[in-house]
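re: that chain from earlier
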Amino acid sequence: MKIGVVGLPNVGKSTLFNAITEAGAECANYPFCTIEPNVGVVAVPDERLAVLEKIYTAKRVVPAVIEFVDIAGLVKGASHGEGLGNKFLSHIRECDAIIEVVRCFDDENIINVSDTVDPVRDADTINTELMLADLESIEKRRARFEKTVKSGDKKAVEALELLTRMTECINNGKSLRSLKLDYEKLSLVDGQFLLSVKPIIYCANISENDIGQPSNRYVEAIREYAKADGAAVIDICAKVENEISQLPKDERAEYLDALGLSKSGLERVITSGYELLGLMSYLTAGEKEVRAWTIEKGTTAPKAAGKIHSDFERGFIRAEIVSYDDLVSCGSLAAVKAAGKLRSEGKDYVMKDGDVVEFKFNV
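^ sequence. v structure.
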């Protein structure tokens, strides 16, 4: 999973990126500090892996990972090349989801590209630019399909109807997310080029003084805005999260507790990202390795096996599965078998979060 971190210049975007990735990207008190995107690969926190490591005395643990991309700040007019617009938009196209950082605090010492703090205005600026870029792309696709429709191609007719719906949606001031299009529909028009269809999380960057307090007026405003977009909102103090990321790992939990936080910003971002994209993890375990694999909810066993290797999917025979909870309560795979809790599942089985699985295949 690749998530793009976006926002207007100087809203704390790169600070948040550093906090969740520990990548050390440059941060400065001026617009367009980020020009080329910074990339950080982050392990998905999963306490189950450490437990399985002990049960199997595994030689190594491999968590699932998420790639975060810190993308250059966007300004009004980006869809027409203003600022770093064209680069900004092309980098978003490569991402599966978007985290949009909006400033939700007052501080006269930090430069603001606008005269006032207004997270809704800022979010609307970015969403408008994404929709305008989509509108231009849709018109180009429409011209192509209009030619093939004349030949009586049924798929072209369906694609043209979808492009018309998309155009109407954007002209009504709504992002393409509001259409709730599935993969099959998007494939009709090669929908990977679209920007405003990508799932989004709004990250409200709050001040240190607002941690643990009721939401301030800026956060409340962006929450209301996000409702109409069907998006999640997380309030995070990027400055404090960055400080936490620089502490030794064994001291971080104590510092979070002192702030009244049960989870770090990274954990909350990843949890929201998984929920937003409908993702979950299944697990494989043995003496050599314990590993988490990310799949979409609703994935069948053969498709899940294909995540490991295409041969596993092509030659799938069955999946031998035990739930993580059953494995932990029994204490070993031998005890699981003795208790009759090891299941043999076929091609139609839909994977569940926390399934510990061994795939049987023959190629």
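The chain has a mean pLDDT of 86.
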